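can u do me a favor
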């Protein structure tokens, strides 16, 4: 049941009040001299405050992770898996609290937040099962005189930096495989959305996670706190989800210590609609690919490339669907589109739309801010967007769909690949041969054929080019937290 206007205040107080708001270091909640305000983007009002860690407290969190590493790595894989499984069950038991918490600090509608609870919790279950499937191999050397033994071992203490747009899932997608592999973690959630990670830490503790295995550092001083942690020789792994410019900086910092890194960075996803596509299915897929998380997702369709023969029909149908969406605070009855996360994000979306219109785009629906309270922007469809428009090369991160046409399969594929990014692409066609050609030709780490959502805990998530390094999820996800050791045994 959706939260009503009459009881939202009490529910907010109850849910937010239940979240610990100090730093979590070595199994203890640790106060800080300064605090960070956490804002409700639907109103601009402060929900609560959390501890603002100093660089020294960041290093204390690393000390705790290092101290716990040997014993956690030696913990039976089955026990590590059982802790993750118990955490999975606890998250589900508190699904409504987690959902409302995410809606309050990030803005997404409650139904979508509930979906993230299911999605995010699944990483805990998936990697609970993977913990007991870490294995090496045994082989006879080609020369016959040596036996080749390989084994997988945890890489060591991990520093995980998570973004604000999926507060639960981005935490579990990193913590699940790290803990399953036997790694301890210092996790730094985004300053805008720290509450969900703090609530998750409390759940992990209740599930039986030993002290020091997971440490949470909330801070407004990201660079000052992160730099000494990354520079410390005891840290052996850095994992980050966020923008490509920040990712490049972190990769450069990690190079000094030759850290193992995984980076899930920016996207500029093309959404291809070919002349033979089922347009009803394509529009359904477009709504999912664009409006998941209010468009604030690295996997969000950023460029709609539509064959010229079906472009007008597609655009009109898509615009009608977008115009019918209900924009309201995420906890309001019937809300389908919540606010953007902050004023700066909304300003950027408005700038990108204005730039596209200046270059000849036509607004079919939306194209404006909504209301004078909170950070709402109308779902928007733009037709005839120039490939020179800023939004053709930049992530929009909002509810705006730019449509550009193409005349041939080769042209569509070339436009899709005309970007430094390569996270995900979507293509709609009823021709199997074309689907295979396009899938092979797209320069992305993931492809959705006739579907607008590809994220799945059982599948490897990640990109190529400037979209990052490594994979999260799937059987591949745990390898990011393991090292391979080879032992040669002479007979």
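np, heres the sequence
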């Amino acid at each position: 049941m959706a939260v009503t206007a009459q009881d939202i205040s009490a529910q907010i107080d109850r849910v937010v009040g239940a979240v610990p708001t100090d730093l979590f270091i070595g199994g203890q909640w640790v106060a800080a001299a300064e605090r960070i305000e956490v804002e409700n983007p639907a109103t601009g009002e402060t929900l609560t405050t959390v501890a603002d860690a100093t660089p020294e407290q960041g290093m204390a969190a690393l000390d705790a992770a290092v101290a716990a590493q040997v014993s956690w790595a030696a913990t039976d894989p089955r026990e590590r898996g059982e802790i993750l499984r118990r955490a999975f069950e606890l998250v589900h038991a508190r699904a409504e609290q987690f959902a409302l918490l995410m809606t309050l600090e990030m803005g997404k509608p409650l139904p979508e937040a509930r979906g993230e609870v299911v999605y995010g919790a699944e990483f805990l279950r998936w990697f609970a099962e993977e913990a007991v499937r870490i294995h090496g191999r045994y082989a006879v050397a080609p020369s016959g005189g040596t036996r080749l033994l390989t084994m997988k071992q945890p890489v060591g203490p991990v520093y995980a930096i998570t973004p604000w747009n999926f507060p639960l899932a981005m935490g579990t997608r990193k913590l699940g495989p790290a803990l399953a592999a036997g790694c301890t973690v210092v996790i730094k959630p985004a300053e805008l959305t720290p509450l969900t990670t703090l609530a998750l830490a409390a759940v992990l503790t209740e599930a039986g996670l030993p002290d020091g295995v997971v440490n949470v550092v909330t801070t407004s001083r990201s660079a000052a706190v992160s730099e000494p942690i990354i520079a410390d020789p005891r840290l052996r792994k850095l994992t980050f989800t966020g923008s490509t410019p920040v990712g490049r900086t972190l990769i450069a910092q990690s190079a000094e210590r030759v850290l193992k890194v995984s980076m899930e960075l920016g996207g500029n996803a093309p959404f291809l609609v070919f002349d033979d596509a089922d347009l009803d299915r394509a529009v359904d897929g477009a709504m999912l690919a664009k409006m998941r998380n209010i468009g604030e997702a690295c996997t969000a369709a950023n460029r709609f490339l539509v064959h010229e023969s079906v472009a007008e029909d597609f655009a009109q149908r898509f615009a009608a669907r977008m115009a019918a969406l209900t924009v309201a605070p995420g906890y309001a009855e019937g809300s389908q589109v919540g606010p953007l996360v902050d004023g700066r994000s909304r300003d950027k979306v408005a700038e990108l739309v204005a730039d596209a219109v200046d270059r000849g785009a036509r607004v079919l629906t939306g194209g404006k801010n909504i209301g004078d309270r909170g950070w709402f922007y109308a779902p928007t469809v733009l037709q005839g967007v120039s490939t020179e428009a800023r939004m053709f090369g930049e992530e929009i991160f909002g509810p705006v769909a730019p449509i550009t046409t193409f005349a041939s399969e080769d042209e569509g594929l070339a436009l899709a690949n005309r970007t430094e990014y390569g996270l995900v692409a979507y293509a709609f066609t009823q021709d199997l041969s074309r689907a295979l050609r396009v899938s092979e030709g797209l320069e992305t780490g993931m492809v959705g054929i006739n579907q607008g959502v590809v994220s799945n805990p059982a599948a490897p998530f990640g990109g190529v080019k400037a979209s990052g390094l490594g994979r999260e999820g799937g059987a591949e996800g745990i390898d990011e937290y393991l090292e391979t050791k080879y032992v040669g045994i002479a007979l």
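DSSP finds 14 helices and 24 strands in the chain. hope that helps!!
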